[in-house]
Each structure stands twice: as C-alpha cells, then as structure tokens.
C-alpha cells in the first residue's frame, strides 16, 4: 500500500465548489506515479528502454464530494500483477472516509503501442501481498 497526500485547490473545483469529477483521475494518476517512484521504478528509464505503462481500463465510483482546501489521501494498492498488466485499487480519502474508489488496469506497451511483458527487473519490485480492492 502507498499513500500520497494531496490538497484540493480552487482550480480543482467546479461551480458548486466541489472537486470536479475528472480531477479525481488526475489525483489517482499522481498517486500511481508516486507509488511507482517509491518502488524504485524509473518511468523515464523505462521509456528509454522502449516501454511505458498506460491505463487500459478504469472502473470508478464517486462516493462523496471533496471540497476546496480539503486535505486528501490517495491510497494505492496492488490487486494483481500479470505478465503485461497490473491491476490496482486506488482510493481518495479524507479523514479515513473513502470519497472515490477506482480499479485501474495498467498495461505495458512498446513504442509501437503493442502490449509487451513487464520486464523481470520491474515485475520483481511489485509487492507480492496483493489484497484486492476493498
């Protein structure tokens, strides 16, 4: 599990003063990037090797709104790691309450946009204690 703090700024909100729905996707993207960085995965280095991780699928559930100046936590947890894909659960929380939850599927692709196996040295750093999306 990885935790990444984020604050809601005015630019993140809509006319009603709540976080605009698409910004949750930006928040979880930042959380995923920081999770990979914390695992020691250099995404620029991976790109130089001719591969990148891309989002293949997202199943999102908006539970409760966040508002301007809220301090949020993006929690990222590995569900499963296959040969060419990663499934993870990401939650945006405030004071322990889940506001947004997504199951995200990432795939590793090459420069031609074709799926490729996750390199063994990269796959080896993913935690082996996947707990699913609860």
TrEMBL record:
Q: Where does the source fall among the domains of life? A: Bacteria
Q: Which InterPro entries match?
A: 4-hydroxybenzoyl-CoA_TE, HotDog_dom_sf, Tol-Pal_acyl-CoA_thioesterase, YbgC/YbaW
| UniProt keyword annotations, A-Z | Hydrolase
Which Pfam families does the record match to this protein? 4HBT_2
Residues in the signal sequence: none
Q: Which family does it belong to?
A: Belongs to the 4-hydroxybenzoyl-CoA thioesterase family.
Question: What protein am I looking at?
Answer: Tol-pal system-associated acyl-CoA thioesterase
What organism is recorded for this protein? Paracoccus broussonetiae
Q: Which gene encodes it?
A: ybgC
């Amino acid at each position: 599990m990885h935790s990444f703090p984020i604050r809601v700024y005015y630019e993140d909100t809509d006319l009603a003063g709540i976080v605009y729905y698409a910004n949750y996707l930006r928040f979880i993207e930042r959380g995923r990037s920081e999770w990979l960085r914390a695992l020691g995965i250099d995404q620029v280095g991976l790109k130089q090797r001719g591969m990148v991780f891309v989002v293949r699928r997202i199943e999102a559930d908006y539970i409760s709104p966040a508002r301007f100046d809220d301090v949020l936590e993006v929690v990222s947890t590995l569900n499963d790691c296959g040969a060419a894909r990663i499934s993870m659960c990401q939650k945006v929380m405030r004071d322990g309450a889940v506001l947004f939850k997504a199951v995200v599927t990432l795939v590793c692709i090459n420069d031609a946009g074709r799926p490729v196996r996750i390199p063994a040295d990269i796959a080896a750093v993913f935690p082996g204690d996947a707990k699913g999306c609860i």
